[in-house]
Amino acid sequence: MSQNERNKPIKNQPKMTQVFTKLIAAAALVTAAFAANAQTASAPITGNASTLQVTPSSTTAYKVDSTILLDASTNYTGATVSINGFQSGDVLAYTSISGSGITGSYNSTTGVLTFTGSSSALNYQNILRSVTLTSGTTSGSKSVAFSIGSALTYSGNGHYYQFISGGNSWGTAKYRADTMRLYGLHGYLATITSQGENDFITNKLQADGWIGSSDDYKHINMATGATTYANQTASEGHWYWVTGPEKGTNFSNTNYGNSNNFYNYDNKAPIAANGMFINWNSSEPNNYKAGVWNGENSGEIYSSGATGKWNDLDSTNSLGFVVEYGGMAGDPSIALTFTRSIQYVAVAVNGSKPNSRYVTAGTARQTMDTTITVTGVGSIGTASVKINNLVAGDTLSTGTLPNGVTAAYNAATGALTFTGTATATQWQTIFRNITYSRSNASTTTRSITFALGTTGSYTLNEFFTANPLALTWVSFDGRAVNENAELTWATADEKNTATFDIEHSTDGASFERVATIAAKGTGNNTYDFTDINTANGANYYRLKQVDNDGSFQYSKVVKVNIGKETAAATVNFYPNPAKDVLNIATTGDVMVAIFNMNGVNVATQEVNGNGQITVSNLPEGMYICRVANANGVLQNSKIQIIK
C-alpha cells in the first residue's frame, strides 16, 4: 500500500540478522514480563440478572449494579466496565476507595472505564458496585459489561479482547499474544469472523493494530500443518487466519491490482473464501511496499482513516496489536464478565379533562384535573406546571409534597417549578392536587401544561375564569324524533341569566353553535329546542348558559342517535345563494320546508318535478331546506339568502 493511501511512514525492511536478533531479545523480555503478570486464577463475577429500568435523564447518574460479587479467594490487578450501545455523551463514573491502590480512567470516546492496580477482591467489588451511568438516551436499551482483568468481552462470541500498544513487528506481536493468558484463557492475535466482532474491536480498542492474518506461505504451512504452498508466489493473495481457533482457515483470495504494477496480480478485488467474512479497505490487499509491488504479507486493522478496514502490510512495521482470548482447546470454562441490561422507560403524563371549561373566580382553590396519570420508573426529577397565556392574578398551588420535593411559584411567568425527585405515583398525586385560583373573572383563554422528566407532557386546554353563576342545572335531555333531535332542559334559581347557546358536535369534542335561545332570567324554568339539521348516527349537544355580565358555563353533554334512510327522490336547489326566488328541481313529489337557524319554519311548498319558492320576504342569512317524500324520507340542504 502506498504512502499516499495512508499518511503513515513505513519503515524499510531491516536485514534478516537484525530482525532475528530483535526477535530473540523481545522474546526474552516478553517471556519474563508475562510470566510475572499472567492471570491464571479462576475469578468468576456475578451480579443482578434482572433488567434495570430507568427514566431517561441526561443529568441523573444511575447506579448500575450494587450487588456485584467477586471471587474472594484472589487479589485482582485490573477490571474494565464498558457500555454496549455507547453513544456520545454517555458517562461512567465511580467512587474511589482511599488506600485501595486502584485507579480508574474513563475513555469518553469508547465508553470504557478501566481500573488498574493490585488490590483485594473486596476493594474491586466495592468499586465496581459504585459505578454509575449517565446517559442522554431517551428510549430503548443498552447494557453495561463488568469484566475482570484488562480485556473487554464481546457478547457475540463470549471472547475477550485487549489492545497492546507499543512498537511490535507482526512476528513479535504474534509471539507475545501466544504467551498471554487471561485467567487461564490462551491469547492469540485476533481472528475476525463477523461484522459485529469487527465493529466491537474498532469501537472499543481505538488504535491501528496487527491481527492474526497472513498470506506468507511459511506461516500458512505452519498453521495448516502441511505444505499447502510451495513458495510465496504460490501463496500470494491467499489469506489465512494463522492464529487462534481459526488457525489454518483460508478466508480471502486474490490481490487487488493490474498487470502493470502488481506482483502476482489477479486484476480483480479480493474474494471471500467459502463465505468467510472479509473487510479489506478499498484497493486492498495490494502487496505494495515502499514503491515496490512486493512484500506485504501480514494483516492489520485500521482505527483511523478507513476505520475498521483491513490492510496488508510489511510484517516489519511497528504497530500495537489486538489480543483475543477464548475458544481455544483446553481453555477453562470461566465467567470473567457480567453484563447488566438497562431499559429506558420514557415518562408519560396524560389527562382526560375536556377543552373549553371554566373555573369559577373567587378565593377558593380549585383542582384542575384529578384524572391525570403518570407512568415511569425509578426516581424522576425535572417537573413543572405552567399557565400558558398567563393573566396577572392567576395562581397555582400544591397540596402536601413528599419528602425531598419542594415547589416555587413564579407569578410573573405562571410557572410552578419543582425541585427534587419522586416516583411516578407520587408525581401523579402531586399533579392531581394542583389547584388554581384568582379573585376576579377573566374570559382570556388559558391552558396549563404539566411537564415531567424529558418526555412527559400534558396540556389541559382552553380554560377561563368566570364569576359564580346564579343558576342550577336541574336536567338536560335529548331524544330522537323521526330524524330530528329534540332537546329539553330545566333550570332552578335563575338570576340574571341571558341566553342559552345550543352547540352541536358529531365527535363529542369539537362543538359549533346551531342556535341561541333567550333565557327567562329568573326563577325555575323549562326549555326545549328541536334540531332538524342532524347528522346520520351520533349527535352530541351541550348548552352554553351566558349571564348578563358575559360570564358563562357549560352543561353536560347529551348524545342523540339518528338513523337516516337514503332519500328516494333527488332534489336540487338553485341559485344558491338566492335573492328573490329559490328554484327547485326534483325527480318526484316532495314537500319542501325552509327553517331559519333557530329552527323556526318560515316557508313550506309542495313540489312535483320543478317549482319555485319566493324568498324575497326572508331576512338575509343561512337557512335549512328540508325535503320529505311520500314515505317521509328527509333530505336537508343549507341555502343562503342575500339582499
From TrEMBL:
Pfam families, alphabetized: Por_Secre_tail
SUPFAM superfamilies registered for this protein in UniProt: C-type lectin-like
UniProt entry keywords in alphabetical sequence: Signal
InterPro entries in alphabetical order: C-type_lectin-like, C-type_lectin-like/link_sf, CTDL_fold, Ig-like_fold, Secre_tail
Residue span(s) of domain C-type lectin: 156-324
Domain of life: Bacteria
Keyword Signal attached: yes
Residues annotated as signal peptide: 1-38
Protein name: C-type lectin domain-containing protein
Species in which this protein is naturally found: Taibaiella soli
